[in-house]
Design a protein that fits this description.
- This protein is α+β, with helices and mostly antiparallel strands.
- It has two domains: 135 residues, 3-Layer(aba) Sandwich (Glutaredoxin), CATH 3.40.30.10; 44 residues, 2-Layer Sandwich (Antioxidant, Horf6, Chain A, domain 2).
- Helix content is 30%, strand content 24%.
- The strands form three sheets. The chain has a five-stranded mixed β-sheet with strand order 5-4-3-6-7. Strands 8-9-11-10 form a four-stranded antiparallel β-sheet, with helices on one face. Strands 1-2 form a two-stranded antiparallel sheet.
- α2 packs across α4.
- The longest helix has 16 residues.
- The chain is elongated, with a radius of gyration of 19 Å.
- Bound molecules: benzoic acid.
- The site of benzoic acid has 8 residues, from α2.
């Protein structure tokens, strides 16, 4: 199944290391990140899961719940968590979905036969409070994800959901933003009292509006 931005994230019931969950209920009213890893007891995955555990405070600040998934069974996940905690100096603090039948992986298009025919690739889905998919990323097994980038994207998504701005290349929290093209230049002062700079008629910059 192909999932596109703006689609409702498919709902499912699954066993996880923190009990059985119904995904949409588990997400509640906040934001969510569902990320897949190819296999338990593998080196890159071990570092990724530890990194997300150590970033818990950053995700909580942004009202984002995280959940991982692989096609390995629950008993495997439970044993592997000990290794993650030991080697990544963390305490696992979010669930890992066990998906041995690949129900969820298939629903989310996480199996890419030309990359890994029976494992999930490194997919990331960011899901908004309306349960719509706001972003998806796909990495090959050989490249661990950059979770600072994922936090940066969440900052942009949360900002642009509430203000009529977009974020330019390499933007990070605190940097100037782009006024969206739909706003006429003459209407900017009323909407952006912090001011704006017109670099070109189509490129108008304004300080981050929520600071
Ligand atoms: C890893 O997590 O290290 C990994 C998993 C599958 C293939 C290659 C690397």
């Amino acid at each position: 199944m192909t999932i596109r931005l703006g689609d409702t994230a498919p709902d499912f019931t699954a066993k996880t290391t923190e009990g059985t969950i119904e995904f949409h209920k588990w997400l509640g009213d906040g934001w969510g990140i569902l990320f897949s890893h190819p296999k338990d007891y593998t080196p890159v995955c071990t570092t990724e899961l530890g990194r997300v555990a150590n970033l818990k405070g950053e995700f909580e600040k942004r009202n984002v719940k995280t959940i991982a998934i692989s096609v390995d069974p629950l008993e495997s996940h439970k044993g592997w968590i000990n290794d993650i905690n030991e080697t990544q100096s963390c305490t696992m603090n979010y669930p890992i979905i066990a998906d041995p039948d690949r129900n969820v992986a298939t629903m989310y298009g996480m199996i890419h036969p030309n990359a890994l025919d029976n494992l999930t690739v490194r997919s990331v889905f960011i899901i908004g409070p309306d349960k719509k998919v706001k972003l998806q990323l796909t990495y090959p097994a050989s490249t661990g994800r950059n979770f600072d980038e994922i936090l940066r994207v969440i900052d942009s998504l949360q900002l642009t959901a509430n203000y009529q701005v977009a974020t330019p290349a390499d933007w990070k929290h605190g940097d100037d933003c782009v006024v969206i093209p739909a706003i006429k230049t003459e209407d900017i002062p009323a909407k952006f009292p912090k001011g704006f700079k017109e670099i070109k008629p189509y490129l108008r910059m304004t300080p981050q509006p929520d600071l």
